[in-house]
């Protein structure tokens, strides 16, 4: 077996083994996605992908915003009522970013969830406070025994007037601050069994609304599947807005991400990714092994051209095997005619298949000796009937006699 064939066979066997290992690995228990971020890109228990997928099925256009809050005006649209959602950001926004969101809320609505969004909530006079133990939450007007939703945070009044942050300064060197507006109406959307507010909707001047939710876990995939959080969370957006912007910048999905990093991260977590890395390693090893030459360089075998005698022997062998004695005679006569083609008495003929006897009959009077004329007559007789090996030999002798007679 050649080295290249052996290498190809080895690579094919290793590829099949790696593919089988990947298939067997996917049949077992898969590792859970334990990413705690409340991102709509994540499908794990703590992610919020299920929430946005359900909203899209209900006719809400969901767009994931992955730039700084200062670029929110570029995301404005006149397609219909729009709400900006900040769901439990893993990277807490500062007061400058909160001011950009408040400015965007001057034309659109806001949905703020989780204690990590307190920087924006304080600009509306509220803040979320975490509780140590989960508390039962119910809809207003419904008995507590009809709810299985539990929360770990409640809302409370935080500030009024002007909110400032000594660690945040704007581009003009002024201390960042926002003025707390006085809401025209405050609706309680969700409360605890003890009467504490969990979700509020603030109606502001101009018909704008800001929805505050203390516990962002209400929007998680686990809560949507295992409790009454799904209908409540969907009613906050579905039927009220046609478009929802989801802030993913503060979840770590900024504009600097790349497809290569995403693919590389997936390949380190998935069995199929590991199989791909193993195949790439095997291919590189095989390429390196095939590129190294072992031992001295062997010279290429030389090519030796056949001699005229070898060609004649080969042709004779073929003619003998096929019974082509008549053809051999014709070939010899045709060779004689080609050699005599420059002579005045050698008129051009129609080719190999033409009958050479007329040409030989015309050639006989031009021969100088009786021996030559007898050889030409003998050739006429030999080409007129089937021949055997002896006839071919006699034709060869007669051709030489004619040539010797006419040769100057």
Structure, described:
This protein has 408 residues and is α/β, with parallel strands linked by helices. The chain folds into 2 domains: 49-251, Rossmann fold (3-Layer(aba) Sandwich); 309-406, no CATH class. Helices cover 39% and strands 19% of the residues. It has 13 helices and 11 strands. A 9-stranded mixed sheet has the order 1-11-2-3-10-9-8-4-5, sandwiched between helices. Strand 8 (185-192) and strand 9 form a beta hairpin. Helix 7 (259-269) packs across helix 8, helix 11 (357-363) packs antiparallel against helix 12 and helix 12 (370-382) packs antiparallel against helix 13 (389-406). It is rod-shaped, with a radius of gyration of 49 Å.
Shape: rod-shaped
End-to-end distance, in Å?
A: 62 Å
How would you classify the quaternary structure?
A: single chain
By secondary-structure content and strand pairing, the structural class works out as alpha/beta
List the helices and strands and how they pair.
Blueprint lengths: L2 H25 L21 H9 L3 E5 L16 E6 L7 H10 L4 E5 L4 H4 L4 E13 L10 E9 L4 E8 L5 E5 L5 E8 L4 E7 L5 E5 L7 H6 L2 H7 L7 E5 L11 H11 L1 H21 L16 H15 L2 H15 L17 H7 L6 H13 L6 H18 L2
Parallel strand pairs: 1-11, 2-3, 2-11, 3-10
Antiparallel strand pairs: 4-5, 4-8, 6-7, 8-9, 9-10
